[in-house]
Amino acid sequence: MRDKIYLVIFLLVVGFLLYLGRDAIRSSVLVSWALTFGGITAVAILIVSLYRFRIELEASRHELARKEAEISVALKVQEALFPRQLPSDRGLQFSAVCIPARGISGDYYDILSLPDGRIAFAVADVSGKGISAAILMSNVQALLRVISTDGSAPHDVCKKLNDHLCQVTSASQFVTLFYAHWDPAECLMRYVNAGHNPPILLGRTRTLSLDTGGVPLGIFADPKFETGEARLELEDLIVLYSDGITEAGQSEDHDFGEERLKTLVLSMRNLPLPEIQEKVMAAVRSWAGREPEDDMTLVLVRAIEEGPQQ
């Protein structure tokens, strides 16, 4: 940049002198020599500037390639954290997808078969974007898996996660979380919604918003979490999602919205879960009209007859 400024100033001065001494140029050897010297100097400065620009461009390309390689590795590591096989017994059936907006995701979902026969499932959204959000997400994923296996109730799980996050994160970072336990013996789901988008329970004769819980994790040192309950009937469908779904198109002032999501799923609730998932994601992409602005996570849960499905 400095060389470019010098070059511009030099050319302006030369141009001004040429204008003033245009009549003396033809008769003065000194002026002709000065102009020749000035022209050679200007070309030299230009060549040096172009050489430096080329070096900087090559360095930028190498740095970009290095960052892309790091993101690629991080994405593969993150993909390995998501469950590879989803349960299809114990009275529930699942379908899930997470689409990152910028290579790696700050969204998270997990589905666990607990030792006592229950199923735990969760959807979370880490504040922020990029590498920092993904690192915090992997931290939450690892800790949640450890805490869940000891049989803690949903409100205890959220309290332990909150205590940990308050110790390792700044006040500007937080996590919204929906965490639930499914007990097939009672056909009962117990859950805590810690500031997350309320999942939608669609039954044959009812529609519920699962919003009982508390504040997002990592904001307050000792919050209270309330456990909600929902008894599931055969073919009940639960739609869990992150705000990347309902806020798609927000930059154009026309959010996809919860009501549109609810109406869409209701219109095809009898289809297989993977097909519902595919159609919802296609509708969201079509609505947004371009690449996702935020990570998009969708988890579908259906109550089925207990036992493995063929």
Architecture overview:
With 310 residues, the chain is α+β, with helices and mostly antiparallel strands. It has 2 domains: 73 residues; 220 residues, PPM-type phosphatase domain (Phosphatase 2c, domain 1, 4-Layer Sandwich). The protein is built from 7 helices and 11 strands. The strands form 2 sheets. Strands 2, 3, 4, 5, 8 and 9 form a 6-stranded mixed β-sheet that branches. It has a 5-stranded antiparallel β-sheet with strand order 1-11-10-6-7. Strand 2 and strand 3 form a beta hairpin. Helix 1 runs antiparallel to helix 2, helix 2 runs parallel beside helix 3 and helix 3 packs across helix 4. The protein is elongated and about 100 Å long.
Strands, helices and their partners?
Layout: H1 2-20, H2 29-81, E1 92-99, E2 107-113, E3 119-126, H3 130-148, H4 154-168, E4 175-183, E5 188-194, E6 200-202, E7 207-209, E8 213-214, E9 228-231, E10 237-241, H5 243-246, H6 258-267, H7 273-288, E11 296-303
Parallel strand pairs: 5-8
Antiparallel strand pairs: 1-11, 2-3, 3-4, 4-5, 5-9, 6-7, 6-10, 10-11
Helix pairs in contact: 1-2, 2-3, 3-4
Low-confidence stretches: none
The total strand number stands at: 11
Compute the number of helices: 7
Provide the β-strand percentage band: 15-25%
Can you describe this structure in just a few lines?
The protein is of the alpha+beta class and 310 residues long. It is 44% helix and 21% strand. It is built from seven helices and eleven strands.
